[in-house]
Amino acid sequence: MATVLKASPRQDLRGSATRKIRKQGLVPAILYGNKIESQPVSVEGADFLKTVRSVGKNGLFSLEIAGKKNHQVMIHDIQIDPLKNEYTHIDFFEVDMTSEIEANVPIRLEGEAPGLKEGGMLSHLLYEMSVKCLPADIPEEIQVDVSNLNVGDSIQVADIRSSVSVEITNEDDETIVTVQIQAAEQENGQAGDEEVSGTEEAEGTAEE
């Protein structure tokens, strides 16, 4: 059964009314799409959190307004109060299930890179990937295996493009993850080179 989030229409859009519904545990939101007029609504904060945990931030679900019409929607934007860690506004986008859309999908690294045992440091550089596909085909996440990465190795978008079932719109040369020599080791190596150079200079001076 599809996930359903209940919403109520908002008639009073004044700031005082918005603050009032937030105190009641509701979150002001807007529903919009290419084929509908924008409609202000509100949802229960607790119910919205359950929905996000159930379908993810890129998932599809039904938004039921006033117990009547259901809209197939995705979350387009979420605003959060950084001090209170509470939702302050949500944008719901009604999708056309027959048309491709673009969405950002989180990247999750899998496995353990052998380069870490060699003293390397794993650098995760790209955390989201942009994909283009039908709404129902949007993956919840894209998994990237790092179990073959040694020091100096990296994985670019081009390396995983063929293993992802949907179209990736990122550039091929964007780096997702790399294993690099740790800064301390680089500094030690440079210091060692300077010592060797200094010793050679001293020996050369002595010979003269």
TrEMBL record:
Record's compositionally biased regions (Acidic residues): 192-208
Region (Disordered): 183-208
Keyword Disulfide bond: no
Coiled-coil blocks: none
The keyword Cell inner membrane appears for this protein: no
UniProt superkingdom: Bacteria
Gene3D superfamilies according to UniProt: Ribosomal protein L25, beta domain, Ribosomal Protein L25, Chain P
Record domain Large ribosomal subunit protein bL25 L25: where: 5-92
Record CDD domains: Ribosomal_L25_TL5_CTC
Pfam family, one: Ribosomal_L25p
Quaternary context: Part of the 50S ribosomal subunit; part of the 5S rRNA/L5/L18/L25 subcomplex. Contacts the 5S rRNA. Binds to the 5S rRNA independently of L5 and L18.
NCBIfam families found in the cross-reference section: bL25_bact_ctc (TIGR00731), PRK05618.2-4 (NF004133)
Family: Belongs to the bacterial ribosomal protein bL25 family. CTC subfamily.
PANTHER family in UniProt: RIBOSOMAL PROTEIN L25/GLN-TRNA SYNTHETASE, ANTI-CODON-BINDING DOMAIN-CONTAINING PROTEIN, RIBOSOMAL PROTEIN L25_GLN-TRNA SYNTHETASE, ANTI-CODON-BINDING DOMAIN-CONTAINING PROTEIN
Protein name: Large ribosomal subunit protein bL25
Gene that this sequence comes from: ctc
